[in-house]
Amino acid sequence: MVRKFPEPDVFQANCPTQRVLETIADKWSVIVIYALSQQETRRYSELQRVIGGISQKMLTQTLRKLERDGLVDRKVYPVVPPKVEYSLTPVGHTLTELLKAICQWTQIHWDEIEAARVRYDQGSDP
Amino acid sequence: MVRKFPEPDVFQANCPTQRVLETIADKWSVIVIYALSQQETRRYSELQRVIGGISQKMLTQTLRKLERDGLVDRKVYPVVPPKVEYSLTPVGHTLTELLKAICQWTQIHWDEIEAARVRYDQGSDP
DNA sequence: CGGCATCCTAGAGGATACTG
DNA sequence: CAGTATCCTCTAGGATGCCG
């Protein structure tokens, strides 16, 4: 028996917006993508250095996830010592446009949000 | 002593894009905002019903967070039994525009992402 | 250099029960 | 009805150590 919803699937967790957010909206993905958008290619250690405070576990994990999603390209050079270069794919580049839109929204509305927070916190904790 | 960074704050976790994502990008926030965008006001129980599978803990927690950020308005009627109505604030409404943009990006690129995933998974697990 | 494997802990979040 | 409070679980993610 199939449950039928009158609404589109917006309320289900697999709605389009939900999907991207699951894809990119963690602390590190955005930062990694930014780091890659600033330069053609970045080496692993370069990313680690430029992104202060990321553990290599999370860096690797994030890069793997982005690579799996086809947003980041990973090129391994068969040299010793090892050399690996990361770069954004074409799809990855279109994603930076989206992030830019998000960034713009923030710049416009962030002051209001912070003000709202102050107001809220003052009201509940006088 | 203040630590000075040569880069702009894009790589720090508090960059603009990061901030919105921390604000809205959890499983439930998006769904709650969607639910509220479809109707002027929604009662608590109404939200709980329309959003399948959310616990009242998470619903309350999400609503409080959105209210604190000034994205959602909470109106309590002093009647018995209690009646509480939730609605989007003006800022909250502009946020739905942003979510729409995200949704559009997904609709354009999601097929590519899924295809990339299949390719990646086949390559690593033959 | 560019990782994986392991251990460990804090916090997210579900289930349940109670209340103004 | 619209929550709060408590417990309990499970996993994200840091720290550390080893390897090709």
Automatic annotation (TrEMBL), chains A, B:
Look up keyword DNA-binding and say if it applies.
yes
Q: List, for all copies, the residue spans of the domain called HTH hxlR-type.
A: 15-114
List the InterPro entries.
ArsR-like_HTH, HTH_HxlR, WH-like_DNA-bd_sf, WH_DNA-bd_sf
Q: Mind telling me which PANTHER family this protein's record contains?
A: TRANSCRIPTIONAL REGULATOR, MARR FAMILY, TRANSCRIPTIONAL REGULATORY PROTEIN
Q: Name one GO molecular function term.
A: DNA binding
Keywords (alphabetical) are: DNA-binding, Transcription, Transcription regulation
Q: What is this protein called?
A: Putative transcriptional regulator
